[in-house]
Write a structure and sequence with these properties.
Length: 95
């Protein structure tokens, strides 16, 4: 496991949004962020004075995924061909 600390400390606050995290919906002060195995992890200050580590993907600062489309153009073209073939079959047209 590799840990790389970012030279500049993070600041601000963050809310945990992961649906199964016991602290979901709670907001914490960000103490710092670091990369662990190519994932960004925040160290957060708890009100009790302790700290917790939470992956960025489990927070309201989750980065959008690179591909937000449900279907790419190839899938759409295959769907058009399939629907055309089904339509021809239903009408009794070959080829």
């Amino acid at each position: 496991m590799q840990t790389a600390h970012h030279p500049k400390e993070s600041s601000g606050s963050i809310t945990i949004t992961h649906p199964f995290h016991p602290l979901r919906g709670q907001t914490f002060e960000i103490l710092r962020s670091r990369s662990i195995n190519e994932s960004e992890v925040f160290s957060l200050k708890k009100s009790s004075g302790g700290t917790i580590a939470v992956p960025r993907d489990w927070t309201d600062q989750r980065l959008p995924s690179g591909d937000s489309s449900i279907l790419d153009i190839e899938c759409l073209l295959k769907l058009i061909k399939l629907l055309t073939d089904i339509s021809k079959t239903e009408r009794g047209v070959d080829g």
